[in-house]
Amino acid sequence: MAAEIIDGKAFAASVREKVGAQVATLVQDHGLTPGLAVVLLGDDPASQVYVRNKGKQTREVGMHSVEHRLPESTSEEDLLKLIDALNNDPAIHGILVQLPLPEHLNSDLVINAIDPAKDVDGFHISNVGLLGTGQKSMVPCTPLGCLMMLRDYHGSLSGLNAVVVGRSNIVGKPMAQLLLGDSCTVTIAHSRTKDLPSVVRGADIVIAAVGRPQMIPGAWIKPGATVIDVGINRIPKEDGKTRLVGDVEFDSAVEVAGAITPVPGGVGPMTIACLLANTLTACCRANGLPEPEGLTA
Ligand SMILES: NC(=O)C1=CN([C@@H]2O[C@H](COP(=O)(O)OP(=O)(O)OC[C@H]3O[C@@H](n4cnc5c(N)ncnc54)[C@H](OP(=O)(O)O)[C@@H]3O)[C@@H](O)[C@H]2O)C=CC1
Ligand SMILES: Nc1nc(=O)c2c([nH]1)NC[C@@H]1CN(c3ccc(C(=O)N[C@@H](CCC(=O)O)C(=O)O)cc3)C=[N+]21
After folding, report:
1. Do the first three CATH levels of 31-116 and 141-268 match, i.e. the same topology?
2. Per its UniProt entry, which superkingdom is the organism in (predicted)?
3. Is 95 annotated as a binding residue?
4. Average pLDDT over residues 37-42
């Protein structure tokens, strides 16, 4: 029996619809328009596509959207000045600095310069600490999107064995924290893990966040497991063009898994939808209004 395909694109559209409805209420009842600023350094084509999609979808849900495209050579001082201005701009409730930053910049320093209340990526050390101690925080968008899909599919995650492959600060670690928060038994695997296939085989939930095209084959997956593929990898096609694939070998995994997210159309669209949800949450918190419903962790 082939797995159920978890439709991240449709799920993301439903999240955006909820965000849009709550934005409309904010505008009508409180005269407030949530605002998101995205900062992009350099001209990496893939990053440009994401930034364009973010801007378009931000406007579609009725939010205020600002893009700052700066040259690759921008100095740390100038970038910190821009962040300071955005921190102090009352029309901006969310700030996202697109990663990775050029090598000459210290990304920890830059991220920690963002007002934690406006850190809609959830990467600031305060938000990381709040999440790790189970307190209210801004939750990183990609793991939040994965959690929403898992909760929707499973109902309760309590007691399930979850394996997160990858330990980055932006995906693997926060994903593990969220799963722990929902009472999964969590294993974090990485490049030094011994016998990864057997670690993955023990999982009811597999989160693949490695950045290696199609690395996890169906043969590693426990029959019936839920597979969330975070990987976004561009590989060459026979016709000279490229296509997107995940970190999971979809064709073999779909035959074994109980449910699986495709690439494209899985985690990616949910990431952007959660960015909009976080911006709405930040705007509500900044104005002492109740948290948006069904959009936080
Ligand atoms: N869909 C979305 O919205 C998003 C998708 N992504 C995608 O997710 C993927 C991961 O991103 P990110 O977390 O930033 O990546 P990083 O490169 O920061 O981290 C990759 C992790 O994978 C581990 N790893 C590498 N090789 C292996 C291996 N052979 N076996 C086991 N583990 C391994 C690394 O281990 P170690 O620490 O030991 O080096 C590391 O912890 C990428 O494809 C990226 O494009 C990222 C963000 C958002
Ligand atoms: N500060 C910061 N925050 C991020 O959240 C962040 C970042 N930097 N740097 C880059 C990664 C990557 N990322 C993606 C978002 C959406 C899609 C997405 O929408 N993907 C579509 C396909 C898009 C396409 O066709 O290229 C899909 O999977 O269906 C993918 C990847 C966010 N990231």
Report:
1. yes
2. Bacteria
3. no
4. 96
Q: What is the CA radius of gyration of the chain?
A: 19
> Whose atoms come closest to the Cα of 171: which ligand?
1
| pLDDT at position 98 | 96
Q: Is 119 in the pocket of ligand 2 (CB under 6 A)?
A: no
Taking the domains of the chain in order of start, what are their residue ranges? 31-116, 141-268
Q: Which two tokens stand for residue 99?
A: 């990663």
For residue 1, pLDDT over 80 is answered with: no
Q: What ipTM was reported for this prediction?
A: 0.98
Q: How confident is the model at residue 64 (pLDDT cuts 50, 70, 90)?
A: very high
pTM of the model: 0.98
Residue 39 near residue 95 (C-beta atoms within 8 A): yes
One-letter identity of residue 80: L
Say if residue 237's pLDDT is above 90: yes
Tokens describing residue 111: 């991220």
DSSP 124-174: SHHHHHHHHTT---PPPHHHHHHHHHHHHHHS--TT-EEEEE---TTTHHH
| Helical (H) or strand (E) element with 14 | helix 8-30
Enumerate the β-bridge partners of residue 245.
233
What is the percent of the chain with per-residue pLDDT over 70, rounded to a whole number? 100
Architecture of domain 141-268: 3-Layer(aba) Sandwich (3.40)
Distances (CA, A) of 124 to 45, 139, 275: 26, 10, 15
For the CA of 47, the nearest atom of ligand 2? 10
Ligand-binding annotation for 168, yes or no, is yes
The residue nearest atom 3 of ligand 2, judged by CA position, is: 98
CATH architecture of 31-116: 3-Layer(aba) Sandwich (3.40)
Contacts 24+ apart (CB under 8 A), 128-137: 128/169, 128/174, 131/174, 131/177, 131/178, 132/177, 134/181
